[in-house]
Write a structure and sequence with these properties.
Two copies of one chain form a homodimer. By secondary structure, chain A is of the alpha/beta class. In chain A, strand 11 and strand 12 form a beta hairpin. The relative contact order of chain A is 0.16.
Chain lengths: 397, 397
Amino acid sequence: MPIAAKIRDALETSSMIRKMFEEGNALKKIHGDDKVFDFSIGNPDLEPPPAFHDVFLRLAGEDKPGSHGYMPNGGFPEVREALAEKSSREQGVKLDASCLIMAVGAAGGLNTVFKTILNPGDEVIVSRPFFMEYRPYTANYGGVLVELDSLPDFNLDLEAIKVRLSPKTAAVLINSPHNPTGRVYPAETIKSLAGILEAHGKASGRYPYLVSDEPYREIVYGLEVPPVLSAYPESIVVSSYSKSLSLPGERIGYVAVNPNIRDKDAVMNGLIYATRVLGYVNAPALMQRIVAELTKERVDVGIYERRRDAFKELLDAAGLGYAEPEGAFYLFCKVPAKGHESAGDDRAFAEHLKKYLILGVPGSSFGTPGWLRFAYCVDEKRIRASGPAFKKAMEEW
Amino acid sequence: MPIAAKIRDALETSSMIRKMFEEGNALKKIHGDDKVFDFSIGNPDLEPPPAFHDVFLRLAGEDKPGSHGYMPNGGFPEVREALAEKSSREQGVKLDASCLIMAVGAAGGLNTVFKTILNPGDEVIVSRPFFMEYRPYTANYGGVLVELDSLPDFNLDLEAIKVRLSPKTAAVLINSPHNPTGRVYPAETIKSLAGILEAHGKASGRYPYLVSDEPYREIVYGLEVPPVLSAYPESIVVSSYSKSLSLPGERIGYVAVNPNIRDKDAVMNGLIYATRVLGYVNAPALMQRIVAELTKERVDVGIYERRRDAFKELLDAAGLGYAEPEGAFYLFCKVPAKGHESAGDDRAFAEHLKKYLILGVPGSSFGTPGWLRFAYCVDEKRIRASGPAFKKAMEEW
């Protein structure tokens, strides 16, 4: 066997998603890029803000000696300090450089965290729907992802989480603003969850970590994302600049650890060691320096908001229901059930939409059949132009 | 337990190396940076070549739309093509973009390869001394590193490798130019190794991969590094621009796969999948574009060569023997044995050298006691200035 059995199996599974992607590309080849309404990919299309270009150009001009060399595995101390300050403002607790390490994007950060905290067989609780890469991110380290349904409004089902906690629970993983629903978990939900974890820790002796994946924190519409670190000491935030500064290809993110976490030294040394041996070694040097100067910048969220509103308008007009998105850049739509079906068939609906040259991702790909995700990382004009296609698709479903 | 058992154990082990590092820092604090001869760290101190600065500044000025966005996990197709051409020149076989993926440095590349090829319990054969991170890089995926001694001249012990091959052997891992010895494996050695692996594959049905870690390929003194891909079809080269362009902090490297490898599609899809789920997602976008324009550039190797010669001169004068370095930037010295010892005590010698404010790394840290590594990533003047200290240290050993 030329490759590992697990990888071979994974390739067979992921070939389905690739097939969908390839079919989309085939549609574009037949009909032309500008005729297909591709809402399938969550790839931020906005350019980084002007301040990014300024800093980028200035650092390239200076190009100081040693600026592309190694630094401590956790990142440049002054960068960690700058981001700790930013995290302090967001999280309502005082962090310093010793609480934060730089990561190769949030994906690298999550792998680093799971490598650090998971023993084989340990469980990570997550709420459906969820970003499917969480499965390999935990399985990479022998972890088991425990997938629970969320409430009908896509808030966390705290009762279900409470019941499922066990001595094997290493972490509860949340993602807010949420992919694919756009949900932002309210402060009371975070506080109640913290209370449940605290009580479970007290009773069992093992306090599960609350791991918060927050790459969309700055992509919100008229509200703030409640802090996680101030709610529960055993908490870890993972984030990136892929969305807030539109730098997904540059792989720059961080892991911020609660200053009051138990055995903080072991956790931080573990994260630094994991960063090293997983082969990240460190987050890219230049981008570290750039984001440290941009802690108060973000892309123009108003653009995403106008797209969201345009998209909601056309879905309303077409009669397609959706979860109210408070952040991120996704609309999670309820697939209309046919006849005596209890839930709409999301795969069939995705196929149906293709006839009208509309591409979306079935909720099954996030663990929640009966729904369909549209990403609005697409020009507002294109969104508006898709209105008649949506209407026709709904009439003929 | 707040962190994974394996990580906790690893931290305990690696604390020894940290201790050494901290003691070096303490020496510098007491005596001043300019008084300590720190030859312990293999951190390239040369600046990237002028052509790097030109491309960097031009790309920063243009900053084209989409240039920081996602691209396919394997990297930008045109970058892969450019590096495939470069690899074709170096390796004596014709590669195209489909044979190569971009990686987060060679460390990221090796992790990606091992994730792709290793089933739990599979063995990777390596020759002592070796870069110690190979241990976690294989253990991360349940692999077992089989450590064999090399010949007295630090060439590969082919007979020992041949005897140790088994149905569990997934790969033989080599590193040339070699850290810590500076050895470059001759073409005949590579060819003989290929013959052994080929014969083993024919007999057992499992052809071990030959994985060649080559970040030092361009740091050589008056010779060329023989190709690996043209010698054996089941071969994979991992490399980076950390040394050749002095960009270690930017984490940019690649994995080049033999175009004639068995089940090439499975291997390439596996590598791409592993890159994705290990959280690298892709190599940093900007650096991909920069290195693609610099495939014929490298740092001024003459500087390293002059340092090497200066270092050899002072070791000769002090009476300290070493392996003849043909590449990389290390001198591996034989610790003089005392009295009836069969080999010198490298840890004791490292401690002894500290009294003369000289820092090196004991061979034990590379699996080969009785030797000591000096890195000459240090200004030539500093190297020359250390002569009297070496002499005195040797006299008093």
